[in-house]
Amino acid sequence: MSNPSRFLRIEDVGMSFPTRKGDFVALRNVRLDVARGEFIALIGHSGCGKSTLLNLVAGLTTPTSGVLLLEDRELRGPGPDRAVVFQNHSLLPWMTCLENVLLAVERVFGATEKKAQLKERALAALNLVGLSHARDKRPGEISGGMKQRVGIARALAMAPKMLLMDEPFGALDALTRAKLQDELMRIVAATGSTVMMVTHDVDEAVLLSDRIVMLTNGPAATIGEVHRVPLPPVREAFRQRLEMAHNADYLASREAVLEFLYHKQAHVEKEAA
Ligand SMILES: Nc1ncnc2c1ncn2[C@@H]1O[C@H](COP(=O)(O)OP(=O)(O)OP(=O)(O)O)[C@@H](O)[C@H]1O
């Protein structure tokens, strides 16, 4: 049995990109263990390497140094065990919501399950995000928030070991964003998913996560601090945003992250390398 506290292990990972001016070092010496069922937020200033790190976990890129392990197995490329939700939903416009979800389900379970079972999985995932009523609508007929929920349903329907989210609510208005954050809390409570989420939003990070991983400014960014949010995990207790506004632990976490971002890592705009 693999060690549950290191479900995902990021071991001394570095990432460089070849550029015309030579190698650009985006990340160095990144070390992190993530436990099964944990919710991790990745935060840091623009361009520090959050997406680069998430893409490494997704297997979309290979580290230049170090190794990533999921349940003690080295990650080599993308796989259905890690579903990714991007900022832009990337749904196929000519397919209905149900067909979009079904497509992902078929890719993962098509070889082993019957059609009726596949459809059941897709319907259950749409139900989980509260979109059963929109199953026959096409992406062009639904709102931005609903499209993002279909994207989340599609990821969940694959029954991944990890849900990787890159600013999933970044393009939404504040009210829709709040609604989807609440929905994500309920989904995490219902599924026990292990989540890694990139965000720019300090409140989103504190509201949703167990630990907030803060990256230093790039180039050659690394983990500067890891803040454990001293609140019961979302999978055990829903966090009411109105209550959080007066909760001392919530406010202390918020302050710790703001202190890191705007004091310890005050961002100096630089010419891109
Ligand atoms: N394929 C690439 N080739 C060269 N440089 C790259 C490549 N991908 C990313 N970078 C550089 O690596 C650094 C980290 O980029 P990344 O997109 O991971 O940052 P981020 O923290 O997610 O940014 P944002 O918050 O603005 O989305 C940036 O300086 C970026 O320009």
Automatic annotation (TrEMBL):
GO terms for molecular function: ATP binding. Transmembrane segments: none annotated. It is found in: Cell membrane. Gene3D superfamilies: P-loop containing nucleotide triphosphate hydrolases (3.40.50.300). It comes from the Bacteria. InterPro entries: AAA+_ATPase, ABC_transporter-like_ATP-bd, ABC_transporter-like_CS, ABC_transporter_ATP-bind, NO3_transporter_ATP-bd-like, P-loop_NTPase. SMART domains: AAA. This is Nitrate ABC transporter ATP-binding protein.
